[in-house]
Recover the amino acids of this structure.
């Protein structure tokens, strides 16, 4: 076989792979849509059960207190055989936060709702695998990492976000309530990707051939996906917190708000969850920026040049530092800190979409 | 249980409110779990009474000034102001990303100024074309870093103090702590405490016995990490500022076979920081032996560059040994502080210009600037001296040059290149003579011919049109009336654009950055927590054991840790099985809080 024939064959394979990738991405959208409806069903069936734990915890405090039992030594039996004796630990939230129990989740304790919830998660897993296949096929077709343009960035980003969600579920974290918000945004993200942002495979210019770039972009995508989960949690915290405030001051929230918010975790839990997520990725985000600087140094001869993309990464970083500080500053904890966290995530998003579309700069090498 | 109810209610009140901070009601036990500054700003007017007379006034003024300065310093180093400054820093960075900046794209600034006649002068006044070196932006970050230093120094001392002292004793009521366990045992209180001390030390707590309880603390690395992080920020800032002040950045275009010596005069353009002087340039020189580019030949990515590499011979110092090196994109040549980057490339067709008598007046590879990804290139060939026209008079020659490495073919209607490699090179020339205008003192763009200059007249062909010709390698265009000729030689060279950058302090910036990440990881992943184990003999003769823990922030790990610890102590001092579960050692019965029921 001649060299020319070989390369021609290779390029035919590539186009074939690109085609497979597109098909997989469309298929994953279909499955995500099914998952989306299953999550909706979970929420709908869950609304049948009338849970009002928050209200009772906030209003009938004395009864709750009186009925609580003090700690004692418990005898836990594992499988009916091994008997382990150990003292029971009583946990209470720090002074200054409410003692509100977490909601039961979207299914609201309803068996059918729970069934739909499980179906939704299974569908999400399936959609995730299909989408992952699409991303991998894309990478194979362009023979490089799948983040050379915004289309590839979008499909990779949503895959990682769903991956983070599923990992949290696999770690037995109580995060199924995120499912509906996540599939909705993933569908929006993919819709945007296949319609507006679609780019046929193209190669990177030599400046983009660097392993620092791979490190930099992959951690940037990962950070964004995790920060997204944190931002959703922060947003829900704000809703739930208003709800609890209203109940506490004797108000009566609307029935829709009650139905939805009662099933979410307590505001303190949401807040803590968001904090842990944001705090956990902050060092990685710092590393991302540093990796970018190292790459910029080897590609452009300066590690920091206030290019718009760099500037917005910096702004995002400082905004998250603000958030972390606010959480340990008197008078800034709680809602104010949460607003800062949302602004910080908005900065991340602007860097991701806004800078590419409106600003340009050295980072806009591969078209939009 | 009626007795317990009242006690519990009283205890729950502060918890339900939002003002009480956990540390307040725990007193010393919860204090200084972090070295964050507490909000203790002293209000103004510190003088008290002003005694009559000059001395009284002086004393009062002195007190007042000192008071205000201290007040201002406390404000500046408070967490709240640090937060505000951080916020301002991120806000202040925004305009620079939206308005063109002199530092990165001076051309764009010029265009902006031309299109925004009213806005531009205002922006100029506000320094918006160089935000990151503007007075106000500098003010924000300098204040922030003064604040940071003012915050770090006392916190470091405080932390050293904490390391040298022992963990604070147990609070009176352990039931109020976020994680709590208790049981009654037949073992003596001393035995329990000893077991607890051993268990805690085994788990690398700093522990000691005070009174009836063991006090322990762990996770000091959190604070150490936090301090390291903030100090690393200062190191990074200084390294960055240092780099900016002494930075140099110059560009040089070199044709294959030519060389470069690192002196100011050799650069095509050069920028440097405020404190730079010529002696700072690292002495070295190099020759460009060969430039190689390869391109994708097939498929959808046809024409995309696969490799760019420049083979050079370089020597360090005045007469160093010649060394060989391949410079690629992302792989610069490094000599001391200086780095030589490959940033661009293009073609330099060799031409030979002869006068009417056949004397060679120019034989040179002329670099042309690429216009598109397929290397359609444009430029000018100028003959400044040595040329005499047909009448024997000194004249200058100029040729506008347009070059395509891969020609579409005659009659295909396009003069743009089809592919970036030299598959079908064609050089199109237009010929002019007269005065190139160099003596006018205006600096010339070597890549452009000013064809509008009335002193420069086109050669005309037989039909009276401007003389133009499309040449293949080896072909010659004759100038009319014995004015000479120009030959497009077969030897087509490539040129490479290099950027030479010197930025001292980069190593420090990197060290600072790595230290910052290490510190951050310590600061955010390590929990600092205190644990107390109290053992006292109750009225009925049994020993009441209480284990409780307090973290700086609530963590799911703390209850787990308390549980493990309690289990360890419990092994040595097992619970009395006959105890009445309803009889509590303490009247305070905490409510199981959120999270308590999930295991
Ligand atoms: C360049 C600006 C700064 C950045 C990026 C930054 C970043 C951070 C981060 C990420 C934390 C960890 C927060 C946590 O433990 O949850 C932190 C903590 C802290 N920062 Fe900064 N900081 C900056 C400037 C300052 C300044 C100027 C001060 C002085 C007032 C300061 C005082 C503190 C203190 C006291 C803590 C510890 C808070 C605690 O222990 O809860 N920081 N900072």
């Amino acid at each position: 076989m001649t060299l020319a024939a070989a390369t021609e064959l290779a390029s035919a394979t590539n186009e074939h792979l690109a085609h497979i990738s597109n098909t997989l991405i469309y298929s994953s959208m279909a499955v995500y849509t099914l998952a989306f409806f299953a999550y909706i069903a979970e929420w709908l069936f869950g609304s049948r059960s009338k849970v009002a734990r928050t209200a009772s915890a906030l209003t009938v405090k004395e009864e709750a207190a009186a009925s609580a039992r003090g700690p004692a030594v418990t005898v836990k039996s594992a499988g009916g055989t091994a008997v382990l004796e150990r003292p029971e630990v009583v946990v209470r939230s720090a002074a200054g936060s409410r003692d509100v129990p977490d909601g039961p989740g979207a299914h609201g304790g309803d068996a059918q709702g729970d069934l739909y919830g499980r179906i939704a998660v299974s569908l999400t897993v399936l959609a995730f695998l299909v989408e992952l296949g699409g991303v991998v096929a894309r990478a194979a077709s362009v023979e490089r990492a799948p983040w050379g343009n915004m289309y590839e960035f979008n499909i990779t980003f949503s895959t990682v976000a769903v991956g983070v969600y599923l990992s949290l579920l696999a770690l037995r974290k109580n995060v199924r309530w995120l499912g509906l918000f996540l599939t909705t945004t993933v569908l929006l993200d993919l819709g945007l990707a296949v319609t507006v942002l679609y780019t046929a495979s193209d190669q990177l210019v030599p400046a983009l051939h660097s392993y620092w770039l791979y490190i930099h972009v992959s951690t940037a995508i990962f950070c964004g996906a995790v920060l997204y989960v944190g931002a959703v949690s922060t947003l829900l915290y704000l809703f739930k917190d208003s709800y609890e405030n209203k109940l506490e001051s004797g108000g009566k929230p609307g029935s829709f708000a009650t139905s939805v918010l009662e099933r979410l975790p307590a505001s303190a839990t949401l807040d803590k969850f968001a904090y842990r997520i944001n705090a956990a990725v902050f060092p990685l985000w710092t590393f991302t920026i540093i990796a970018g600087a190292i790459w910029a140094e080897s590609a452009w001869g300066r590690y920091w040049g206030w290019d718009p993309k760099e500037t917005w990464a910096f702004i995002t970083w400082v905004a998250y530092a603000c958030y972390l500080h606010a959480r340990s500053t008197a008078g800034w904890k709680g809602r104010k800190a949460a607003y800062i966290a949302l602004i910080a995530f908005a900065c991340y998003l602007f860097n991701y979409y806004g800078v590419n579309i409106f600003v340009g700069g050295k980072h806009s090498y591969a078209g939009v | 249980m009626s007795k317990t109810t009242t006690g519990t209610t009283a205890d729950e009140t502060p918890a339900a409110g939002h003002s009480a901070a956990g540390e307040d009601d725990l007193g010393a036990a919860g204090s200084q779990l972090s070295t964050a500054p507490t909000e203790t700003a002293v209000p103004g007017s510190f003088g008290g009474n002003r005694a009559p007379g000059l001395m009284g006034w002086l004393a009062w003024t002195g007190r007042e000034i000192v008071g205000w300065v201290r007040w201002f310093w406390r404000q500046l180093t408070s967490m709240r102001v640090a937060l505000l400054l951080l916020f301002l820093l991120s806000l202040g960075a925004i305009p620079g990303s939206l308005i063109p900046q002199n530092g990165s794209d001076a051309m764009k600034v010029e265009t902006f100024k031309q299109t925004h006649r009213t806005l531009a002068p205002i922006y100029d006044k506000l320094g918006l074309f160089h935000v990151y070196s503007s007075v106000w932006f500098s003010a924000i970050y300098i204040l922030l870093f003064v604040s940071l230093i003012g915050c770090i120094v006392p916190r470091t001392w405080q932390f050293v103090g904490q390391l040298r002292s022992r963990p604070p004793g147990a609070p009176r009521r352990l039931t109020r702590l976020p994680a709590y366990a208790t049981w009654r045992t037949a073992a003596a209180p001393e035995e329990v405490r000893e077991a607890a001390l051993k268990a805690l030390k085994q788990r690398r707590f700093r522990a000691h016995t005070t009174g009836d309880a063991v006090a322990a603390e762990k996770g000091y690395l959190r604070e150490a990490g936090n301090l390291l992080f903030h100090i690393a920020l200062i190191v990074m800032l200084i390294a960055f500022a240092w780099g900016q002040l002494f930075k140099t950045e110059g560009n040089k275009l070199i044709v294959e076979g030519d060389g470069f010596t690192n002196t100011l005069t050799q650069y095509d353009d050069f920028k440097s920081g405020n404190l730079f002087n010529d002696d700072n340039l690292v002495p070295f020189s190099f020759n460009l032996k060969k430039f190689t580019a390869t391109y994708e030949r097939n498929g959808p990515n046809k024409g995309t560059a696969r490799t760019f590499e420049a083979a050079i011979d370089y020597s360090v110092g005045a007469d160093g040994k010649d060394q060989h090196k391949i410079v690629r994109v992302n792989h610069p040549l490094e000599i001391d502080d200086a780095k030589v980057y490959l940033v661009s490339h293009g073609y330099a067709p060799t031409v030979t210009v002869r006068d009417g008598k056949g004397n060679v007046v120019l034989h040179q590879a002329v670099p042309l600037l690429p216009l598109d990804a397929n290397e359609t290139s444009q430029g000018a060939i100028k003959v400044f001296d040595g040329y005499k026209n047909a009448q024997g008079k000194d004249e200058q020659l100029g040729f506008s040059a347009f070059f395509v490495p891969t020609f579409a073919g005659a009659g295909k209607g396009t003069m743009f290149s089809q592919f970036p490699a030299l598959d079908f090179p064609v050089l199109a020339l237009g010929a002019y003579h007269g005065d190139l205008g160099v003596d006018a003192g205006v600096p010339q763009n070597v890549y452009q011919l000013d064809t509008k200059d009335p002193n420069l007249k086109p050669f005309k062909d037989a039909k009276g049109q401007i003389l133009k010709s499309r040449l293949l390698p080896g072909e010659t265009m004759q100038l009319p009336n014995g004015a000479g000729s120009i030959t497009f030689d077969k030897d087509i060279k490539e040129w490479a654009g290099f950027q030479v950058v010197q930025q001292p302090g980069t190593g420090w910036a990197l060290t600072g950055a790595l230290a910052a990440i290490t510190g951050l990881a310590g600061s955010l992943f390590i929990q600092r927590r205190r644990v107390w184990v109290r053992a006292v003999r109750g009225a009925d003769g049994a020993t009441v054991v209480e284990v409780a823990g307090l973290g700086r922030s609530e963590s799911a790990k703390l209850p787990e840790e308390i549980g493990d610890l309690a289990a360890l102590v419990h092994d040595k001092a097992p619970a009395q099985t006959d105890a009445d579960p309803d009889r509590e050692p303490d009247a305070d019965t905490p409510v199981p809080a959120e999270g308590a029921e999930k295991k």
Remarks:
- The mean pLDDT of chain B is 82.
- The first strand of chain B starts at residue 179 and ends at 185.
- Chain B touches chain A through 104 residues (CB under 8 Å).
